[in-house]
Amino acid sequence: MLNFIINLSNNSGYIVSLTILTSVFAIFALGLNLQWGFSGLINFGHIAFMTIGAYTTVMLSLSGVPLIVAVIIGAGLAALLGFFIGISTLRLREDYLAIVTIGVSELVRLVANNEEWLTRGVQGVRRYQIPFVDWEPGILGKVIAIALLTGIAIFAQWQLLRGIKNQFKEYRSVQNKSYQPTKPIVCIIWGAIATIVILFIYINGIISLYNYHYQAGLMVLALLILALVYSGLEILVRSPWGRVIKAIREDEEIARALGKNVFFYKLQAFMLGGAIAGVAGSFYAWQLNAVYPTSFEPLQTFNAWIIVVVGGAGNNPGTILGAIIFWTYDAVTRFLLPQLGIDNARLSALRIMVIGLILMILVMWRPQGILGKKEELTLGK
Amino acid sequence: MTKNILLSAKGLSKSFGGIKAVNNATIELKSGSITGLIGPNGAGKTTLFNLLANFYTPDRGEVIFASKPIHQLPTHKIARQGMVRTFQVARVLSRLSVLENMLLAPQKQTGENIIKVWLDRKTIKKEEKLNREKAMSILESVGLDSKAKDYAGALSGGQRKLLEIARTLMSDPKLILLDEPAAGVNPTLINQICDHIVNWNKAGISFLIIEHNMDVIMSLCDRIWVLAEGSNLADGTPEEIQNNPHVLEAYLGQ
Known about the structure:
B: alpha/beta; six-stranded mixed sheet; four-stranded antiparallel sheet
């Protein structure tokens, strides 16, 4: 145990940045999950929202705008982009939306690449303001940060236990209905794994807050925003609004026949998902320390898709789980594969290949994603 | 025009390319009535429904519902006026539970406003509770209460029809447009559906029903309109229609 903690504290910096990345991509993918998982809007250009959020935040903060205002404006501009894409394409069939979003994301990246007056082009933006960099916490500051982290950990554990409890209840009450709920033993195994992950992040967080580095503060903030976005979305998708959105995903005509303004709801979902990705963009920029157009390749969009598909579309806890799996995979292969004696160039190709393989196996074995419900795929219209 | 008239459509026309699906059709129905709409296959009945509910925009003509012209309103606003339709092939939201299907229908729910979802949770909770009770009592009356938590996609064809009709009731409509409620449903369930329609009608809801099953139409309806090749052929009481030689000709051919 002591050995483990010493080991952890040596690597805690790396694990902190991994935690930040995971949170950022969890937030990013939650936005996509709202758009695709709940509303059925195929968005292949999610990275565009993140790019706008990131660049707006860093450029505004460079010209002296307070960070929090910069983040809000960034999210607002991302939502505005969603508004313009939505207003022109959401009336069309969904494949058109997919095509337009790909185009727009490339457009945004090319603007970032070439419009040097606006984004400094390929040289990238550096030395911008990052939260907590100049903060030197005393004992009180550290205690507050640790208390905050404890609160988040308790919230996560509480959500987890509540989810498991609901699964148990469902298992008992709907035994011989049209679908099979998850078996209790499976819930317990997943619950145990998730608890270990939460504990791991928590202990590592305390260690890193104790030996304070600004990234530790950033990590607490990212986790806090993740918790806020997650609980906000959970309230939203369980509300009547969420019901309308899911109804539109299933069959627009029914929603229209029942008096719902389908276009307006789709626009709201698309803009909100975009704004969430914009916030993720601010954190991504802070984590990266310097932003270049190459940080926002279309590949990131598909990383978000992988996260959503792996976790289970239309499932917010699943999306967070997907993000954890994605970055754990990233970290594990980064350290394990070199020991097999493969050179770097081949290594990165191999890692992507293995992701593809895992996705293929998953889609065959569990097409609904890890936390998704199988019936939601097999029931026809 | 008397005040009693709930829906009146005059001179409705709709063409798809060169085909006049509905040509100068007229229909009128009284408040509190059950009105039938019949005609051979391809007569334009469903197209007329789509025109009434503005799923298609009419090329010409006007639709007056509860003394207000509605043919220029967007589709979703027509349901808010109190006119709700069902579909020829029952459409349910498969991946939502039966109860959620029901809860979708009530109009003007506070929780449908994205801002209020976060700010006004108390009101929403109260509304949800009321709506849930109402939904369960309607489901109970049609015998679907035991399925409330099942996916709607797991229902049989007949049950889907029932759910679809039950769902329209949740929105407190004045008029329900039913597109072939008895198609593909077993005789026992047809009788049940008819009984429900009569009961709901007594509670003050008007119906406009497209149906090929003549027993259903003749037993339920106060008045029947006949369409053939997109135009009005006849209208009258069930007896008049049964004895109308033009109608027989249109159905059976010469």
